[in-house]
Amino acid sequence: MYCSFSIIINLIMFCCRRIDGLEAEPALLVVTPKNVHIIKGFEFHLVISKKGTQRVLEWTNAQQKKMFVDEKENHQSTQWARSSTRAASTQSNRFSKGGRQCFPTAKNEEESMLLESIYATLLSTDGAYTVFPIEDIFIIYRHRYQLKDSGLEIKDTSGMSMLFACSDANGLGTPDTAVAILKKLIFEHHLPNSIYHKYISSRFTNFQLQAGIPGYRNFEQVYAYMMSQYAHEVTKSWSRGEISNFEYLMHLNYLGGRSFHDLTQYPVFPWILSDYTSDTLDLTDPTVYRDLSKPMGALGDKRLQQFTERYRTMEEFVQEEEKIQRDLMEQDGDDYEDMGNAVTSPPPFYYGTHYSCSGYVLNYLMRMQPFTKLAVDLQGGHFDVADRLFLSVEGSWNSASKENLQDVRELIPEFFSCPDFLVNSNGFDFGYTQKCEQVDNVVLPRWAHGDHTEFINKHREALESKFVSENLHKWIDLSFGNKQRGDLSVDAFNVFIHLTYAGEVDVDMIDDPVLRIATISQIDNFGQTPTRIFHKPHLGRVVPDIYRVGSKSTPSITASFRSADSTQSVGSLSSAMMDADLRGTSSKGQSLGQSQSGDSVLGLSTSTVDSNTLLWH
User: Fold this and answer.
1) Largest alpha-carbon pair distance within the chain?
2) pTM
3) Residue 255 CA from chain centroid, whole number
4) Which residue has the higher pLDDT, 291 or 71?
5) Which residues make beta-bridge pairs with 36?
6) Alpha carbon 386 to its chain's center
7) In terms of DSSP H, where are the helices of 464-512?
8) Which of 146, 164, 242, 360 has the most CB atoms lying inside 10 A of its own CB?
């Protein structure tokens, strides 16, 4: 764990990979007393030589290489510079367009000044560089990278964030390094504006944090406790109507390891409506809504029957293989155990595809840059076949809900906040379908009257409606709760291919490089199931009927239940503003779980949520 960073000139340096879209580029995470820096294009390694262990900095960008050469030429008189040049020249470059340079700990004042100059230059490079003041950090989420908890997303009080996956000195993803960074930032720096501050300053003393807390075996459990309490407060705020359904789903996505930075784990939202053909949309009519208690694959009876038959066939095959192995074990005993007795068949599943993956996200967002370029790159330099593109909302609903055995996709937040992704404002040539229809703007339901902003507003209004508010917890159970895995998921027809679940595959244990690359590709392409947040059924939200003032108790035409900020037209929002919109504040602008006096709301009112329903991994 400690070999992946080194303390030099009051800096802590970690190897990581900056996650952006479909890329995970080498980068350095540098923690200084006041800031957290992410610098792409650099890697830090340990090299064992006759002189001992040397810290080696490698870079990939020619301009960055020139920067270090210029710094070195100004200090040619130092013994450190001459010895480092010789050491670097004897080592093979890892990157064809980059270089490498040894950076030992300073041995005297002259070398210390040189190192300070180099690191000052490194921390002031333009482009591919992000800096976060430590005092502005609001929350740090754990994130899965290639099915391991080695990623972290740091979010500040303005809603800006950066996502990276930690790696060790060998370049392998490691959760231990992520834990080390969490501990460094949360417990060794003051985070006055973070959700952790009240716990660190009151519940746990510094001695307890360093020595271990009774009932908590390690730091990870302390972190899990604080995140569980935060999730509990968010859920309480939602159940009381202090935040909207949209905001609550965004909080759950973040807590579940989803991020706008990672297309393989993009935030997921449910299909809300089932009526995309009517001229008008009556949101008080329950029949216009989708059944939120079922996953998309279970909505069409005929298709569900085929999924069920496949699951039972695979289950019988696994059971038969287990029986054969048990019989062989009884006959051969220890000899059979030496040969290995693991079941080789994959676990049974209903769906061979997932409800959220990078291909689906890019299909939805292909009309906007930079997603257009990413979609083209994913297809080998051209757009996908026109008939497979995102043509219309109704067509996508029909495909995902009943027609296509390979399509059980859900939605993304942009369907409720950003009309731009529905319009081909850049005039891209997507080609023609087999029916000779040109692919241009997304075809909208008739009740949107051809207005993309009206569609978003109507869709958002449906999301915040009384029906959805009272039934949303059923979908949360499927995606983030007790029906995500285990026997309940089987009963709910909610089992996906095993490669989408955390802990099922450890890519670092695969020795065959070809098989390892293929497995990683499968993980990225199939999508990943969110981290499980709730282990008990999620409580529903009780929504009162809304009456207009002076209407003599006549129910309002719109029975939606909104937070105070939902009166703003969502048509003016873009996907880039979503993170800035969700800073963990209630409709009164207060931090979740805090009253005006700064006291915890949890201690001032009766909880409507059982805190035992939350168990953070």
Assistant:
1) 90
2) 0.78
3) 8
4) 291
5) 31, 132
6) 29
7) 466-479, 487-491
8) 164
